[in-house]
Amino acid sequence: MAIAETGQSSAASPLVTQLHGWVTTVDHKRIGILYILMSLFFLVVGGVEALLIRLQLWVPNNTLIGPDTFNQLFTMHGTTMIFFVVMPMLSGFANYLVPLMIGCRDVAFPRLNALGFWLALFGGCILYTSYFTGDALYGLGSAPDVGWFAYAPLTSPAYARGGSVDYWILGTLVSGVGTLTFAVNLIATILTMRAPGMKLNQVPLFVWMMLVDAGLIIVAFPPLTAAQIMLLLDRYAGAHFFDTQAGGSAILWQHLFWFFGHPEVYIMALPAFGIISEIVPVFSRKVIFGYASMAAATAAIGFISLGVWAHHMFTVGLDDRLDAFFSAASFLIAVPTGIKIFNWTATLYGGRLQLRTPMLFALGFLGMFLIGGLTGIMLATVPVDWQVSDSYFLVAHFHYVLFGGSLFALMGGCYYWFPKATGKMLSETLGAWHFWLLFVGFNLLFGPMHIAGIMGMPRRVYTYEAGQGWDFWNQLSTIGAFIMGIGFLIFFINLVLSLRSGQKAGDDPWDAWTLEWATSSPPASYNFEQIPTVRSRRPLWDLKHPEDPDWKYE
Amino acid sequence: MSDLSANPDPPPHDEAIAMPRPTAWPMVLASGVGLMAIGIPTNLIFSIVGLGIVFTALFGWFGQLLTDEAEVEEPLVAPERRARPIRPSHKRVLSPTPGQRLELPEKVHPYSAGVKGGLAGGAVMAIVATLYGLFSGRGLWYPINLLAAMILPHFADDTAVELSQFSLTALLVGVVLHTVTSLLVGLFFGVLLPTLPSSPVFWGGVVGPLLWSAGIYSFMGVLNPVMSDYVSWPWFIASQFAFGIVMGLVVVRSEKISALRLSPTSEEEPHDANS
Amino acid sequence: MSKPNVDEEIPIPPPVESEFPLSPAQVGMATFLCSEAAFFSTLVVAYLIYLGEDQTGPTPAESLSLTRAVINSAFLLGSSGTIMLAMNARKAKSLNGFSVWMFGTITLGVLFLVGTAYEWEELIYQDGLTIGRNLFGTTFYTLIGFHAFHVTLGLVLLTVITFLERAGRLSAKSEATELVSWYWHFVDAVWIVIFGVVYWMGT
């Protein structure tokens, strides 16, 4: 059974041995790194797609990219960024950090964990296979062009000929199954494998938020899977789920998709909240303000987020009472989210702030996510939504939430935990360049979109007429996109340079308080020589300050 | 305590730790699933091959799990690559000012005080509101109907005359609405009061009603258009102050108790027992 | 608070016991079943939304037989009972009792599948109900089909686990058998919902 060997045979060349080690690994840390590498790869792909979109919109009546290719680009960009960039990156962080933070040697089901990663990766591969099939072989791209939420009846056999939509369905379906195994694994790990003494109300907030996150995945992903199977049956077996001509309902797809799609927004946001809740206290040199209210707010967000999906559908023409209900529920979710923002601000207040790169990204997150949240409240108001839905205002809103929110936090997480994973520090100089280019570029790209949207520019148009006042704002956006591109380039240079010749990190470079900093950098495969014992929310604080330990207060 | 304190039960091995053995079967299984999926839009041959791979992988996976090969003894890394023990830090830390750790007041009002205060304040407020109805000549039921109009949509069409007539539904809705709101506001106030500096009657009797009235004044057009059209604001604000002052008085007069008795982990010993 | 003391003077409290009542495998199985429940709920919702929306037949009332469904349900619900007896026998360390009851469970499961096959045969060839015929066909075959697929999967698992137990490949404290029984009970519970929604409401 050669396939199951540990990969230490002396005959193989080092590179092959190393690759074999990565392919066969069941170590949660290596799987976490694989997830993040996959995410970074697709980040480049999705980023290039976005740059092409921005180039096309540089001037009115541009002919750089045709309408068909443009439709494929925004579909692939959205699908890639959500399913194959943010999802694997948060899975990666959770995989790497949760067992270290709760003080155990591995996740509950290490092999299942590996399966989850490979399913996610192969899901991404299936999606991109579409570029190499069908028409593509004759020189025409045949990627899916139905938008990332793939509304019926665009996906029906009559309107989506060929296999491109099938690749979209199957790619996200397979990776979705991978995400489910990830969630099952995470819940079992967090509930049953905490270090001795660590109560469930003492886990680091990142762990707590990942627990809620995994719960959301368990509830929200299966309906998407079911809807995708229904769509496959429509396309291949002649079923009529979304076939309006045979009495089926195109609205049903929208309900099912957004029942997944809105919790998905929080599935992508909660890990970001978790990362911020780890970074902000450490770089403010203070305890997180309001741990319990933070945990409760997370649970509340998880619960309410299951009941707001139809705010994506105000323009469909639902019943007024439904609109009112979903609008009210969407307002309601602003309350726990606001609690979090206030808690982070209160943690910053009076702290001795250290503006290292992770903290820069955390502060950037706070500002950008706040803007995204506020435009979210605007959009939850039905009349406003009727005006600006499906305009660039909406595009600006969700990029402020997902990019300015989730991705800024994930980038901050990269800088914060890179020393733990590699033993080397990322360069602070390049990090600052990365942050400021990203921050400036981000606001230059998505800020003007608010204005273009209010001026009436619809999303997903491949070009526009001159003289509507949109040109200037679009050009600003395109400039911003390229500034961000340079920012990411610096990030990748930073990763490579620091990995080769970065400053040595040591076990605990940030003088932090959670358990992952108690082990070596990088940790051994078994994480801890001896499993630590925990008495408070900040076990390392207790050891560093035995005269004033936390457990006296909790 | 120089090291992270050890587990009660010592580790089974001194030199090695049992970890799951690396295996390629998960990757093989995933590739089988991927092939099965690819077969749908291309050619079913892929799906059949994929299914074969899935079965092979499952067989291999669980075959391995059932034997001793499932685990491998990982030797401990060299001592110089292990984590250093964590020593007490001599860095100056911020002295525990309020907010460095979340410090809660040691003595708080019991929840019942908030509830009682809310109900008492609500009763007084109801009396003031009724007095308004009587003095203004609009009748006893007028203020109740105005309140109920928030929930009952058809009241929006009513004229002032109809608003002064008795309606059982409006009475029920109004009473429930008023009681619940009074109770919640009282509870909220009771919990919040110990964290606010000095003079509770000032907070309850002045700041609270002012904030509440201002909030209601700005939102009333949306929440309850009927009421915003017909209400007499001086009387409304007066009744708010009556509520606030009575509630504040009732809560303040209650006996404070130790905060520990309210916490869900009350079986733990008070942590200042050893001082 | 007391003044900061020297290290030795603060008694370090013993760590609080924080054992979770379930094992990792049990939590994993329970979580997996929750996701399965979410999956089947979606299919049931789709069925209910389209119930009675058809312009053309056959309708559930015309084509479904409550008698057959009751018999089928008896098979499946009975198998939940037999697998419980098998688990009891396993706890009592009676390998033969366990094998007999597992065999009974598998037989009842197979009978259920045979019953479903007869039902489908009649629906397809007598009533002309296919997945593409109307919305009832679409939702019915999807829902029942996925349930039958889960039953099939369960039967494979039951067979494999019985053989492994008999071959002595599973240690006494292995949880695999118990978890498979959880899965089987879940499949049964889904059937009760389906029976109510599809057969009882439909006929």
TrEMBL record, chain A:
Organism superkingdom? Bacteria
Q: How does it sit in the membrane?
A: Multi-pass membrane protein
Which keywords label this protein? Cell membrane, Copper, Electron transport, Heme, Iron, Membrane, Metal-binding, Respiratory chain, Translocase, Transmembrane, Transmembrane helix, Transport
Gene Ontology terms: biological process: electron transport coupled proton transport; oxidative phosphorylation; respiratory electron transport chain
Give a single Pfam family match. Answer: COX1
Residues of the signal sequence?
none
Record's catalysed reaction(s): 4 Fe(II)-[cytochrome c] + O2 + 8 H(+)(in) = 4 Fe(III)-[cytochrome c] + 2 H2O + 4 H(+)(out)
Any one GO cellular component localisation term in the record: plasma membrane
Its pathway, per UniProt, is:
Energy metabolism; oxidative phosphorylation
Q: Where in the cell is it found?
A: Cell membrane
- SUPFAM superfamilies recorded for this chain? Cytochrome c oxidase subunit I-like
The answer to whether the entry has keyword Acetylation is no
Question: Which regions span the lipid bilayer?
Answer: 33-59, 79-102, 114-132, 167-193, 205-231, 251-276, 288-312, 324-346, 358-380, 392-418, 430-452, 472-497
Q: Name one GO molecular function term.
A: heme binding
Give the EC number(s) under which this enzyme is classified: 7.1.1.9
Tell me yes or no: is Ribosomal protein among this UniProt entry's keywords. no
Kindly report the protein's main subcellular placement as a broad class: membrane
Ranges for domain Cytochrome oxidase subunit I profile: 16-535
What is the purpose of this protein? Cytochrome c oxidase is the component of the respiratory chain that catalyzes the reduction of oxygen to water. Subunits 1-3 form the functional core of the enzyme complex. CO I is the catalytic subunit of the enzyme. Electrons originating in cytochrome c are transferred via the copper A center of subunit 2 and heme A of subunit 1 to the bimetallic center formed by heme A3 and copper B.
Per the record, the similarity remark reads: Belongs to the heme-copper respiratory oxidase family.
Q: What is this protein called?
A: Cytochrome c oxidase subunit 1
Source organism of the structure: Blastopirellula marina DSM 3645
TrEMBL record, chain B:
* Membrane-crossing residue ranges in chain numbering: 44-62, 111-132, 139-156, 168-193, 200-220, 232-252
Per the record, the domain of life is Bacteria
Q: Transmembrane among the record's keywords?
A: yes
Could you list this entry's UniProt keywords, alphabetically sorted.
Membrane, Transmembrane, Transmembrane helix
Protein name per its UniProtKB record = Uncharacterized protein
User: Origin organism of this chain?
Assistant: Blastopirellula marina DSM 3645
Automatic annotation (TrEMBL), chain C:
As for membrane topology, the entry says: Multi-pass membrane protein
Localized where? Cell membrane
**Domain Heme-copper oxidase subunit III family profile, residue spans:** 26-203
Q: Which domain of life is it from?
A: Bacteria
User: GO MF terms on file?
Assistant: cytochrome-c oxidase activity
Sorted alphabetically, the keyword list is: Cell membrane, Membrane, Transmembrane, Transmembrane helix
GO cellular component terms given for this protein: plasma membrane
Tell me where the transmembrane regions lie: 27-49, 98-118, 138-161, 182-202
Entry-linked SUPFAM superfamilies: Cytochrome c oxidase subunit III-like (SSF81452)
Keyword Cell membrane appears in the UniProt entry: yes
Locate the coiled-coil region(s) and give their ranges. Answer: none
Q: Name one GO biological process term.
A: aerobic electron transport chain
Q: Which Pfam families match?
A: COX3
Please describe the quaternary structure of this protein.
Heterooctamer of two A chains, two B chains, two C chains and two D chains.
Q: Give the family this protein belongs to, as stated in its UniProt record.
A: Belongs to the cytochrome c oxidase subunit 3 family.
Task of the protein:
Cytochrome bo(3) ubiquinol terminal oxidase is the component of the aerobic respiratory chain of E.coli that predominates when cells are grown at high aeration. Has proton pump activity across the membrane in addition to electron transfer, pumping 2 protons/electron.
Give the protein name, as stated in the record.
Cytochrome bo(3) ubiquinol oxidase subunit 3
